[in-house]
Amino acid sequence: MKFFTADLCDAHGDKIDVLEPKLQSYGGEEHFFGPITTIKLDEDNAGLISLLKTDGKGRVAVVDAAGAYCAIVGDTLMGFAAQHNWAGIIINGYVRDVVNTKHIRVGLWALGTCPMKSQKKSPSHSQIDVSFLGVDFKEGNYLYADSDGIITIKLNLLS
Fold it and tell me: Could you tell me the fold of the domain covering 5-153?
């Protein structure tokens, strides 16, 4: 379904949160939306791997890696996301394998790139509220992304 975040902001501006423009697109889909599923991790992407191997049902995984400088997602995890029907992944962290991730039909936004893979340090926490770049991400709210930016709102504006 076609939408533009600018139009959604014009129509629902008082209800919308806009992510600070610090993330870049690294996935094969720049234009996507879906209900939010959250996960917080500390350089250990094992919990995210498990999440992306479940049926995404068009959801968007919002990952708070606290900006840790290691790659949280690469082409392998993007492959899991595509295979299991995830609309996108938003990361407060870094990615790698971007030559390949640009060809996988899933949205992927992150702070930047890092060739070093994630380290196995500590367990993740999922389905909790996470906050970064000026937005409080809540489980079940909706995220919309396109070339103008990323926004969230409690409602599905496209149904």
Answer: Glucose Oxidase; domain 1 (3.50.30)
Question: How far apart, in Å, are the Cα atoms of 148 and each of 5, 19, 46, 101, 122?
Answer: 7, 11, 31, 20, 35
CA 120 vs CA 39, 40, 70, 90, 123: distances in Å: 16, 14, 11, 20, 8
Domain boundaries, the chain: 5-153
Letter for the amino acid at 75? D
Given a contact cutoff of 8 angstroms between Cβ atoms, the answer to whether 68 and 42 are in contact is yes
32 touches 58 (CB < 8 A):
no
What string of DSSP letters covers 84-134?
Answer: TT--EEEEESEE--HHHHTTSSSEEEESEE-SSBPP--S--EESS-EEETT
In this structure, how many other beta carbons lie within 10 angstroms of the beta carbon of residue 75?
16
Q: What is the pTM for the complete model shown? A: 0.95
90-124, pLDDT tens digit by residue? 999 999 999 999 999 999 999 999 999 988 766 77
* Token output for 103: 């060809």
